[in-house]
Structures are given as structure tokens and as C-alpha cells.
Amino acid sequence: MPEKQQSIHGIWRNRWTFIFAATGSAVGLGNIWKFPYIAGENGGGAFVLVYLACILAIGVPIMIAEILLGRHGQYSPITSMRRIAAQSNHSKAWVLLGWFGALAGFLILSYYSVVAGWALAYIPKLGFGEMSQVTPDVAKKIFEDLLANPLTLVGWHTVFILLTAMVVARGVNKGLEKAVTILMPMLFLLLVILLGYSMMSGNFQDGLDFLFTFDFNKLTWDSVLEAMGHAFFTLSLGMGAIMAYGAYMPKNISIINTSLTIAFFDTLVAIIAGLVIFPIVFANGLEPGEGPGLMFVSLPIAFGHMGFGAFFGVLFFILVTFAAWSSAISLIEPSVAWAVERFNTTRFKATFFVALLAWVLGLGSVLSFNHWENMSILDGRNIFATLDFLTTNIMLPLGGLLIALFVGWVLQEQITRKELSPKIMQIYQLWRWFLRLVAPVAVLIILTVGLLEAFPEQKIAFTRFILDVFPSLKGD
Predict the structure, then answer these.
(1) 13, 73, 239, 387: which sits with the fewest CB atoms below 10 Å from its CB?
(2) 421: phi > 0 → left, psi -120 to 50 → alpha, else beta; which?
(3) CB crowding 338-358: b at 16 or more within 10 Å, else e
């Protein structure tokens, strides 16, 4: 395969554009509420240390490998993997790695857009005072009424899909690049403004204690597993987005340094989000562990009872929308890039075709919260829960595992050395060791745990089997 100078889709203008794009892909709804909560519930600072170790041992090595594949292939993940496998004289079956990523991103977008629509819906709710002085029961009912109204959900789902498509249809430089260079600085600015508001109006000391008190008594094996899982998922690995963005990366940019920078900013956003949210939650006597309910029930209650709460509540949900938007454009990009290559069509047509398919599939997720709530697709799960299970528990870990195995064990080492151009060979060798040995084992554990958690009966049977094989684990 003759080496191309750049992707047919375009190329990032500089290193920071790529960092903004990849960080935007990584920073999503989970950063806003999930990481701060699981950190606080699992030992605070002790969990953060374990999480950072997992980022360095699992997340960064696989991210480097995924960017490497994208930049070497310089096409969509599907086309890149087909060409790289052919170039390396390996099985054509490795193209499934590209298909897994693009399909996972597409499926996630279909239901992620519905959830992002909730954030859009809450901007006018806060702005027009609907949440002012609201009681917990009323706040819960407002959220339940939103979910129970399919027409409203479809409306906001449509708006979000259109916002996403409008960016991607304009191409790498006029669309993706321009969007991320506006969205990411705005996201950080909003975070800083909300952090200042939280420090002045919230119980900031309790928020700090919740996130950073080193409580090693709360740090269990389950905590380590949770840190491993979140370290993998938070960087948007295995869904084709990072590989697609890597295809637009100039050859003179260090993949290793850039990956470390992205991991740093992704973690920084999650920590600052926690320092924004939890002081406000504690100042209002609310519970921090409600998952999505924290964002759509607890926080609106808090903003509704605070000075200038409506204004800062609107800013918060704009922040959430920006985080979701920057992630969504990365979710759709692999499929759009492949459609342009496969059908030799314009980016505009490819984008709106893929967006339309995602919108139609998203209708199933919309109805999963009302008319089809009790529909069983997979082991009692409705459409929304099934898509979430398939992507989160199977497709993404499997995609990450395949990336680690292909780059670590199949791809010729001269290609990895050429793409990474390591100045310090010890760092390169350390990365290669983690990618070949540590990361695959860790992701396999994440995949196994995710499947067992999703099927409780099988988990019980598996636990009994392990205890029969290793009776010493039963303890007293």
C-alpha cells in the first residue's frame, strides 16, 4: 500500500486541534456525573490514584494504538483495517475491528442523542423558571413527565441529531475542526465559571472531602474493577472515533505525547465537574449517588433554590449539551467517512443518510421510556437497555481488546516504530509491554465482569464455580 500524504477527508491543522477533537470525543455525559460519583463512593483520592494508574496502564496504551492505526491507514476505520491487514499479509477478518468500531459508534449515537435531548430540554426549563423553588417530588415528576412524552423526546432527539449532522456534513476542517475549536474552549470556560459559582454558593469543603479524602477502607476489589472499566470507557476507545480522528492527524505530531495530553484533559474535566456538582448537592442536602437522576432531578432542585440559580442552571445544561455534542460528532464520523469512501458520494449526502438512520433507530430508545418501556428484546431489556448493553458490555471492550492484540501482536513492529518515532526507546518498550500483556488481560476482565453484571444468574453460577475451584477464596 503506497503511503499517502494525508487522508482524503482532510487533515487537522495542528496538534491542539486534534487534542480538542479527541478530548471532545472523550468528554461526555459520563464525565459530568459518573466519574465524580464513583470516585467519592470508592475512597475518594485513593480511587483517583487507582484510576490514574489504570488510565496509564490500559487507556493510554490502547489510545496510542488506535490513533496509530488511524494515522497509518488514513481512511475510515473499516477501510483502514482492510488495507492495513492486506498490507501486512494478515487475515481479512481483521476488518471486523473497523466494523465493530463504526457500528458501535453508530448504535451509541442513536440512544446517546435521546439522552442528550434531555439536557437540551432542561435549558428552557431552567431559563423560564420552571424549576424555581421546586420540591423533590415536583422535580421528579417534571423529569418523569418528560420521559413519558414521546413527541417531546422525539423533538429534542431530532434537534440534537440535526446539530450533530450540521457539523459533520461540513467536513474535517470547516465542520469538525471549527466546531471543536469553539466547543472545547467554551466547555472549559463554562466549567471555570460554574466552579467559581460552586465555590461561592455551595458547600465546597464537603465536595473536596467527598472527592479527595484518601479512604483506603472503601477501596475494594470492586473499586479497582470500576476504575479499570471507567479508565477504558472514558477515553472513547473501541468505538472507531479515535481511529477516525487519527486518520486526520499530521505525521509530524507525536502520538504518545498527544495521547497523554488527551488523557490529562479528560480526567481534569471529570474532576472539575465533580467540584462543580457536589458542593451544590451537599449545600442543598441532596444525595450524590443518583446517576442520571443526579443531573435531571437533584441538580435542578439545587439550582431552583439558589441565588442566580436559573442563570447558572442554564449554563450547566449548556455545558452538558456541549459535552454531548462534541462526543456525538465523533460517534457519527467513522460511519460517514466510510459511506463517502464506499459509495463515492458527497459528505453532505453521507452525513444526512447516516444521521437519518441513527434518528430512526433512536425512536426505539425514545419509546423505551414510555410506550415500549416493558418490551423485552434481550433478557428482559427494552430497546434502549439492549443497545446500551450490547455497546457498553460487549462491542467496546471487544473492540479495545482487538486493537491491543492487532497492534501488539500482529502489526509489524517497524510500522509501530515509524508511526510513533520514539525518542526514548525505554518509553516505547514500556508502551509495547503494557499493550501486549497488561491491556489485553485488563480489557478481558472488563468484558467478563460487564457480561456477568448484566446477567445476575450467570454471575452467581460463575462465582460458585470459582469458589469450588479455589475453595481458599471462601474465607471464613
Answers:
(1) 13
(2) left
(3) bbbbeeeeebeebbbbbbeeb
Residue 2 has a pLDDT of: 45
Cell of 387: 443497545
At 472 the pLDDT is: 59
Residue 40: HSE in the Cβ half-sphere, 13 Å Cα cutoff: 25
Are 400 and 62 a contacting pair, CB within 8 Å?
Answer: yes
C-alpha to C-alpha distance for 241 and 403, rounded to whole angstroms: 13
Structurally, what CATH architecture does the domain formed by 15-474 represent?
Up-down Bundle (1.20)
Using a 10 angstrom Cβ sphere, with 0-12 exposed, 13-18 middle and 19 or more buried, the burial of residue 117 is buried
pLDDT, position 228: 87
For the chain, give me the number of helices (H) and strands (E)?
Answer: 24, 0
Comparing C-alpha atoms, which of 331, 337, 338, 279 is closest to residue 303? 279
In this predicted structure, what is the pLDDT of residue 407? 96
Element (H, E) at 50: helix 45-54
300-304: Cβ within 8 A, 24+ apart: 300/122, 300/125, 300/126, 300/131, 300/134, 300/139, 300/142, 301/131, 301/134, 301/135, 301/136, 301/139, 303/126, 303/131, 304/131, 304/132, 304/133, 304/134, 304/139
Alpha carbon distance 101, 66 (integer Å)? 11
Give the long-range contacts of residues 147-152, CB within 8 A, separation 24 or more: 147/369, 147/370, 148/369, 148/370, 149/370, 150/366, 150/367, 150/369, 150/370, 150/371, 152/121
The 3-state secondary structure of 222-274, one letter per residue: HHHHHHHHHHHHCCCCCCCHHHHHHCCCCCCCCHHHHHHHHHHHHHHHHHHHH
Residue 333 CA to residue 426 CA, distance in Å, equals 35
DSSP letters, 103-136, are: HHHHHHHHHHHHHHHHHHHHHHHHHTTTTTT--H
Query: Residue ranges of the domains in the chain?
Result: 15-474
Question: Is the pTM value of this prediction over 0.85?
Answer: yes
Cα separation, 246 vs 407, in Å, equals 15
DSSP-assigned states of every residue in 75-107: S-HHHHHHHHHHHTT--GGGHHHHHHHHHHHHH
Least confident range of 12-21, 398-407, 455-464: 455-464
DSSP state of 471: G
State pLDDT tens for residues 335-357.
999 999 999 999 999 999 999 99
H or E element at residue 386? helix 383-389
Q: Residue range 452-470: average pLDDT?
A: 63
Question: What's the whole-number mean pLDDT along residues 55-70?
Answer: 96
Which conformational region is residue 43 in: left (phi greater than 0), alpha (psi within -120 to 50 degrees), or beta? left
Tell me if residue 7 falls in helix, strand or coil: coil
